[in-house]
Amino acid sequence: MTNNITTSTKKTFFGIATGVVIVLLLVNARFTAAQAQGTKFTGEITDEKLNCVQTPMKAVPGITRKEACVLYWARYGNPPSKLVLYDASTKTPYKLDKQDWVQPFVGERVEITGTLNSATKTIALKDVRKP
Question: Rounded to 5 degrees, what angle do the CA atoms 60, 63, 67 make?
């Protein structure tokens, strides 16, 4: 009789362990799928020193449009400024790994899908579009 209880207990334990493993695999698959899709970030494409989101803009005389201001600092700043996504609601600039993807949106509000490296505040871009 003791042998049957041991065998029954073993079967129950392995059944529970198998169930836990299956649940963990499903949770991991769902988490991995969410990561693959990326997180959405919304903000404005501007220069990394935020010269062009200030009021008044920090620009050279004659530049009055935000796009021209950003392009000026990206081209002629010393050193040239990188483009960033600036979230005005949190006052947070995010570095962007693919500068060429966001250049057409300079000075505009965009929605970026990507993965954030929180240590460097850099977004690995998957998609950029106007909201």
Answer: 115
Task: Give bridge partners of residue 115 from the DSSP assignment.
Answer: 124
Q: Do 54 and 91 belong to one domain? A: yes
Range of the domain at 74: 39-129
- Strand 109-117 relative to strand 92-96: parallel, antiparallel, unpaired? unpaired
Burial of 122: CB neighbours in 10 Å, binned 0-12, 13-18, 19+: middle
- Single-letter code of the amino acid located at 16: I
Q: Are residues 11 and 63 in the same domain?
A: no
| Residue 66 and residue 115 in one domain | yes
Note the pLDDT tens digit of each residue in 63-119. Answer: 999 999 999 999 999 999 999 999 999 999 999 999 999 999 999 999 999 999 999
Compute the distance between CA of residue 46 and CA of residue 100 in angstroms, rounded to an integer: 13
